[in-house]
Each structure stands twice: as C-alpha cells, then as structure tokens.
Amino acid sequence: MANKESLRKLIIDALTKDFETANNAANAAKETATSKETVAENKYDTFGLEASYLAHGQSIRVNELAEAIERYTSLHFKQFSEYDNVDITALVTLETENNNNKYFFIGPEAGGLKLHWEAKDIMVITPSTPLGRQLLGKQLDDTIELHVKNNRIIYEIIAID
Fold first, then answer.
1. Region 94-115 average pLDDT
2. Which of 111, 122, 127 is nearest to 2 (CA)?
3. Minimal CB count within 10 Å: which of 14, 63, 72, 145?
4. Half-sphere exposure of residue 75, counting CA atoms within 13 Å on the CB side?
5. CA angle 61-62-66, nearest 5°?
6. Domains in the chain: how many in total?
7. Residues 151, 99 within the same domain
8. Statement: residue 50 has pLDDT above 90
C-alpha cells in the first residue's frame, strides 16, 4: 500500500508553485492595466483594456489554484483494497494492450498535472475527464476503452491503491 501523504505533498507543492507564478503574473498584469502609460490615446488604443482582461483572467486562475490547494490540504485520502471500486484519491495502474503500465491519480482538482512519484510517472485526472468518468466505479481487472484521435485504446485495471 502506497503512502499517499507524500503524493499529497507533491501535488500541493506543484500547485503552490503554479499559484506563485500565476499570482506574480496577475500582479504584473494588474500593474500594467492600472499604469498611467496604458491610458488610451485614441479609440483604437486597446492596450489598457486588454491588460485589464489579462489581469482579470490571471486573478481567476490564482483563485482556482488557491481553492485546489485548500481541497488537497483537507482531502481525506482513502486506503483502497483489492475489492474497492475506483473513487477519488485512488491511484490506478492501467495496463495497455502492449503490456505498458500507465499510472493515474484520481483527484478533485489539478487534472493534467504530471508528477514523478515513487519511480513512476503519474498523471492527475479528475472525474470530469473521459478517462476519469470511465474509471469511477470500476474494479480490479475491469477493462475500459477510450477513443483518441480515431484510435481505440483498451486498458485493464491491474492495481488500485
């Protein structure tokens, strides 16, 4: 059974780094948007308006990352047995038809985040993704089928931790 506390820390660290980057970008965009130098010189000068849109978008991203950090901080990580269904906080090992293993962590946020943990490359996915939707409720030895760019991919669930 894997100790997922170190995985939680790795996810939170990655989200915190993204938060700091986004926060710096939001502050820079806000500073640009409110600078005297961005006051429109004519009706076609939209630099200040565009900077304010960017600042707004960046602030939304900062809030989303703060919420994701909070969710992972307070999230109960379930310990799964071989009889449990896939659910949030499951680390799922899928085997391809070519006998390659792929590792996915089902999280509430941060879908697409790629991590290297315990000598494995893991991707965080959420229940709202096509793979996440298919995995939820499945059990060990179940198979799932995905269609990606006209390719059919079949995975078998070989571990749920």
1. 95
2. 122
3. 145
4. 25
5. 115
6. 2
7. yes
8. no
